[in-house]
Amino acid sequence: MFQHLTGARGPGRVLPYLGIVRSDAMEEAQVGTIVGGDVGTSTRWKGPNGDRWSSARRRLARWREDSRNADQRLEEIAADHLSALHETLRADRSAFGLYDTACAAGERLAGALGSLAAEGAESEDALVARLVSEVGGDGGTLADAAVRRGMAAAVRDVRDMHPEMDDVMNGGGAGGGFAWDILCDLYQVFFADMVGEFLRAVVAEHVKLAVPVLIATDPEGRIADWVAEKVVDLAPNPCEESAEATDLAQAVDTAQSVVGAAQDPSTALSKIAESLVPQAVGKILGLITEETTGEEGAAA
After folding, report:
1. Comparing 105-109, 138-142, 208-212, 243-247, which segment has the lowest mean pLDDT?
2. Contacts of 292 (CB under 8 A, 6+ apart)
3. What's the CA gap between 157 and 232, in Å, rounded?
4. Most buried among 12, 24, 49, 280, using CB within 10 Å?
């Protein structure tokens, strides 16, 4: 689904919604002005605090690409950063503003799925531009930036998964819109890529400040890819949730009972996607686990 850790995304990419080619380093430079989530201050943000974060940073500082078992060690470092993020959010759900920002973005994405099923998009650039704008907004926090970059990455990843997207974007599709299996994958992959992009920014800032020798090896991009691949299956897929009903009528009834009236399959799936947002965000951010659901069941 995603590029492997040893083949991460390149250092530059086209940002069609800005009309420029922009390097990851240029975008990461903005992170240095973030303090407590606000952009535009003169004090550099030194990254998250805490023992788990410090341990992950120390391991990264010692990592070298040409060392023995370098790929395995980088995967372990990626896991350390993901664990640090989960631990931080369990202690304080409001940390980084990530939970609320992700929930709001997920709801906006769910709302956009129906029109994409009907209209599609004329090109990948147009699809990225639309979704980055509609889902990501123009907020200036690190979480907002992770949403925008995660949305763009999700479009690229899902296009790799579904080459048939080109038929719709090139006008070759019969219906004019994207099939729901594509849109459901886009929904699921978005949450994973968002977390990966958040940690990419955290790692990139540490590398730039403390371990500049690692800049050329792009550990942050490789960590982002590993994290996204690791958590993607935690996010629910609206189509799979809908398929649990015995037929389409039951799927519509399910959407109606959960989130209100639904008039057609596209509306039903959009509503199901919207209802799944708290679960998706909770799981990818480590707030909902098998342990927590088991405890809730025991308490009930």
Report:
1. 243-247
2. none
3. 12
4. 280
Residue 81 has pLDDT above 80, yes or no: yes
Q: How many Cβ atoms sit within 10 Å of the Cβ of residue 12?
A: 12
The token duo for 140 is 């200036």
- pTM here is 0.80
| Torsional sign, CA 105, 106, 108, 114 | positive
Give the whole-angstrom CA distance, residue 275 versus residue 52.
33
- 8 Å CB contact between 120 and 165: no
**Separation between Cα atoms, residue 214 and residue 191, nearest integer Å:** 27
Determine the distance from the C-alpha atom of residue 119 to the mean position of all C-alpha atoms in its chain, rounded to a whole number: 24
Least confident of 25-29, 61-65, 70-74, 263-267: 25-29
Total Cβ atoms within 10 A of residue 125: 15
Which tokens is 241 given?
Answer: 């949730």
- pLDDT single digits (tens) 83-104: 999 999 999 999 999 999 999 9
The structure tokens listed for 102 are 């992700």
**Percent of the chain clearing pLDDT 70 (strictly above):** 72
35 phi and psi angles, rounded to 5 deg:
-130, 115
> Cα–Cα distance between 300 and 297 in angstroms, integer?
5
Nearest to 142 by CA among 13, 41, 39: 39
Hey, how many other C-beta atoms are within 10 angstroms of the C-beta on 267?
18
pLDDT at 285 over 90: yes
For residue 27, give the amino acid letter: E
Could you tell me the two tokens for 120? 């599609």
Rounded CA-CA distance 256/248 in Å is 12
